TrEMBL record:
Transmembrane segments: none
Residue intervals of the Rho-GAP domain: 1-159
Biased composition (Polar residues): 197-220
Taxonomic source organism: Ilyodon furcidens
UniProt region (Disordered), positions on chain: 193-230
InterPro entries: Rho_GTPase_activation_prot, RhoGAP_dom
PROSITE patterns on file: RHOGAP
UniProt name for this protein: Rac GTPase-activating protein 1
């Protein structure tokens, strides 16, 4: 019965997806009657990325960090692993986690952190390879929710630094996206930019023996401007560093 457990109409999901891919403006989601079509669109978008949001390369590292029995060490390893994500992946993950935290805080959604972890574990954590063996799928299914639960347990302030959410209540109904970094194919132009950045663009948090130093280092904003953009939309106009669909 939860918000992300019920499926929306396939036709509506497909129509919304096409609008995001082909339009220069954000669809007015407040006019969509079926909330489950919107949640279905988000899950479809994440599920159809070329690789999971947490990437193939860091899949095992995230799982190992989530499984550390000592909470402080587990959190410290999680911060370090998040810092190793390509910046667009990290920023999109931050936007998503902040959203899911709000979902979990609302009784109306009927989705607590445990439920959300089970729904989004396979989607954003995924596997370490594109075509895993059946045994690996079985093992990963048990570990994926642990990663999401740990991500959702990290403080709001940590995630907010990556999305620069200064106007939480902003009206996005008529927001125009000026995406200078959109990608083109022979058949279409999309407002959704590539997800994974080159390795040389990665920024790593310096290692430290103390969790507090890790936090202080990690909480340094990455953006060069604190312009009052809408939630999740950096000043350059990208759709919160949106991932590239297949």
């Amino acid at each position: 019965a939860g918000l992300y457990r019920l499926s929306g109409a396939d036709r509506t999901v497909k129509e919304l997806k096409e609008k995001f891919l082909r339009s220069k403006t954000v669809p007015v989601l407040s006019k969509v009657d079926d909330i489950h079509a919107i949640t279905g669109l988000l899950k479809d978008f994440l599920r159809n990325l070329k690789e999971p949001l947490l990437t193939f390369r860091l899949n095992h590292t995230f799982m190992e960090a989530a499984e550390v029995s000592d909470d402080d060490n587990s959190i410290a390893l999680m911060y370090q692993t998040i810092s190793n994500l390509p910046q667009p992946n990290r920023d999109t993950l931050a936007f998503l986690v902040l959203h899911l935290k709000r979902v979990a805080d609302s009784l109306d959604t009927k989705m607590d952190i445990s439920n959300l972890a089970r729904v989004f574990g396979p989607t954003i954590v995924g596997h370490a390879v594109p075509n895993p063996e059946p045994m690996a799928i079985l093992q990963d299914t048990k570990r994926q929710p642990m990663v999401v639960e740990r991500l959702l347990s990290l403080p709001v302030d940590y995630w907010t630094q990556y999305v620069m959410a200064e106007n939480v209540q902003s009206n996005l109904n008529h927001l125009i996206i000026e995406n200078a970094n959109c990608y083109a194919t022979p058949e279409r132009m999309s407002m959704l930019g590539p997800l994974t950045t080159p390795e040389q663009h990665l920024t790593k948090t310096p290692s430290s023996s103390s969790l507090s130093q890790r936090m202080k280092s990690t909480l340094t904003p990455r953006f060069g401007s604190k312009s009052k953009s809408a939630v999740g939309f950096p000043h350059q106009g990208k759709f919160f560093s949106s991932p590239l669909l297949k």
